[in-house]
Design brief:
Layout (H helix, E strand, L loop, with lengths): L10 H16 L5 E2 H12 L6 H10 L3 E2 L3 E4 L1 H9 L6 H10 L3 H10 L1 E2 L6 E4 H7 L1 H7 L6 E2 L2 E4 L1 H8 L14 H20 L6 E2 L12 E3 L6 E7 L11 H10 L3 E6 L8 H10 L4 E4 L1 H6 L17
Parallel strand pairs: 10-11
Antiparallel strand pairs: 1-3, 2-3, 4-5, 5-7, 6-7, 8-9, 9-10, 11-12
Helix pairs in contact: 1-2, 1-3, 1-4
Length: about 325
């Protein structure tokens, strides 16, 4: 089982996570055999038995426990199990945020908030924050310095976790295969690239996280008509990519307002901040402006790869 969205992590379920960790820590001999883990853990943390596989999955994805024939705590898992309660739950909260469980909620909150240029404080109206990032807000409120009144106010010490955007990378899972994970990295890097170039970072939207049918991934609303950016990413260095039928149509529809960013030599084993710096130094992204015109004049070569076959009418 995998947990791919922060909406599953309600406050009640998050509160059970340290109990799961302590159950694993206290079991003798150290660790719990996988075949008995669900029932042993349930006896310690209570709640619905059906939730236990999800709780184990969250802790595994956050690298707080190592799974296999026996469930054991990792180094950070031991820290959460022994110290998190002394820190008001913030060690676990920061781990969940950094791991990307609240990636979509964090992105929406960043895009809907204002960041003070001098203090770095991030503010968002309370109602808007609750509607768009309810589980993330619950975690943010655990930290000292967060104000929860008419507006949510997040100090720079914490807002930097969100505005630096590395926490916006979606969770990887078996369902989220390698190619998709590489694509997510590319989209995140273009989102970061455009935010750093923009005068107002809130005009840059990672629209593909909400709607994959648009035919592009990132939108720049600082100009009119807005720029539409399709992102391609690969572990190879040379630009070579596929356009779906929808992307082809959208590229020709929007002409000079449609562009492609290509990120090459993506390495999923590198931390995203380090890799982003490496790729920028290597000259990525390679940007193709007005893709339809470049195809028309032969600068880019597009080859058909499939055909629709049906009965003649």
């Amino acid at each position: 089982m995998t947990v791919e969205t922060g909406s599953w992590l309600t406050a009640v379920r998050v509160a059970r996570l340290p109990l799961v960790l302590r159950a694993i820590r206290n079991h003798r001999p150290p660790g719990i055999p996988a075949e008995h883990a669900e029932r042993v853990i349930w006896q310690s943390c209570g709640g619905p038995l059906d939730d236990v596989p999800g709780l184990i999955a969250v802790l595994t994805q956050a690298e707080l426990i190592s799974s296999g024939s026996t469930l054991r705590l990792t180094k950070i898992g031991r820290r959460v199990a022994t110290q998190d309660h002394q820190h008001g739950g913030t060690i676990l909260a920061r781990t969940l945020i950094r791991t990307g469980f609240f990636a979509d909620q964090a992105r929406r909150l960043v895009e809907l908030s204002q960041v003070d240029d001098e203090s770095g404080e991030m503010t968002c109206f309370r109602r808007v924050a609750l509607e768009n990032a309810p589980q993330l807000v619950g975690q943010l409120r655990l930290f000292d310095g967060v104000v929860w009144e008419e507006k949510l106010r997040v100090p720079v010490s914490l807002s930097s976790e969100l505005t630096e955007i590395w926490s916006l990378l979606p969770m990887r899972s078996p369902k989220n295969a390698t190619r998709k994970a590489i694509g997510d990295r590319g989209e995140l890097y273009s989102y970061r690239f455009e935010q750093l170039r923009a005068k107002d970072s809130s005009t840059i939207r990672w629209v593909a996280r909400d709607d994959e049918s648009l035919g592009y991934d990132v939108e720049d609303n600082s100009v009119s008509p807005q720029r539409r950016i399709e992102v391609k990413a690969s572990s190879w260095s040379e630009p070579r990519f596929f356009l779906s039928a929808n992307e082809w149509e959208v590229a020709h529809c929007h002409g000079e307002h449609y562009e492609i960013h290509f990120w090459g030599t993506i390495d999923l084993n590198r931390p995203p901040p380090d890799e982003y710096s490496r790729l920028r130094a290597a000259g990525y992204p390679i940007i193709f402006l007005n893709v339809s015109q470049q195809i028309a004049d032969g600068t880019l070569i597009a080859s058909p790869t499939q055909y629709l076959v049906e009965h003649a009418s």
